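so my prof wants the structure for this chain in the C-alpha cells format not the other one, which i didnt know existed until like an hour ago. anyway here's the sequence
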Amino acid sequence: MLQRIALQLYLAAKFNPSMYDAIFPMSPKYSVGTRKVIAAQLMKSLSAYIKNASLQKDILAKAKTLYESSTREMRFDIDDICPRPKHIPIHFPIPWPDPNPWDGRSFVELNPQPQPPEYYKAVLNLIAESIDDSEFGASLQKLSDKIE
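here's what i got, hopefully its the right format
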C-alpha cells in the first residue's frame, strides 16, 4: 500500500498537471503543500516498520518538520482532494475474468508478509524525489541508506 501512494505522489510531483490528468482522469489535484503533507504522513507510516529505534526517531522528526512547514503551503484554490466525478455511463453486466486483474489488492495483502529492507528504502527514496526541497530530499536519501 505504501508503494502505491508513494508512486502516485512521485508522479503528481514530476508530471505536468495536464499529463497527470490524462493518465489518471478525474483524479485529485494537489498543491506543493498538500504533496508534502502526504509525504510526511507516508514517512510517519513507514517509520513504524523500521526496526532501528534511532533511525525511526530520525524519520519521525523529519516527517514532523516537513508536516509543520508544509501546512502553510497548502492552497485552497488548487487542492481538490475529492473531485466531483463526471458521469461515465457504464453498462452492466461486464464480464470480468477471474481472478480479476483490475482488482487493486494483491495476494500479499490478503496474507501480509514482512517486507525486505529494500522495499522501505525504495519507498523512502520515492518520497525524497517527490519533494521539491533538494536539501530535504538529500537528507531523506541519506536516511534511506541507513535502513537495514
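also thought this was worth mentioning. Residues 2-82+115-145 form one domain.
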